Fold YCII-related domain-containing protein.
Amino acid sequence: MKFAMLICGDDREWSSLAPEDEQDVMKQVYSWYERWQPTGKIADGGVELEPRATAKTVRAGADGAPVITDGPYMELKEVIGGLVILECDDIDEAARIAATWPLAAGMTALEVRPLMSRE
């Protein structure tokens, strides 16, 4: 079964890290991948998202037509900064694997959610 591991946090914290601190965190992240990739638990290596300031939001307007605006305007402390797709037997196993992720500045929570299958 596949699960999304959503990496949540304050991207402004991440963006303000000194280069050597960012490099240290990335070494920890690479080490996490080295631990789990050989086990077959990572179905997709995932993606890192650019900061929220680069986003566009599409919503339905009053007439139902799409309205596109710059960035997310909601006052959010945490946003999704990246995601990894896990292949696990159940959500408990996915959560145990997520619990080994190296949380650092700008990464305050991990959300694990089953992927919907329409088969």
User: Anything to note?
Assistant: The chain has a mean pLDDT of 89.
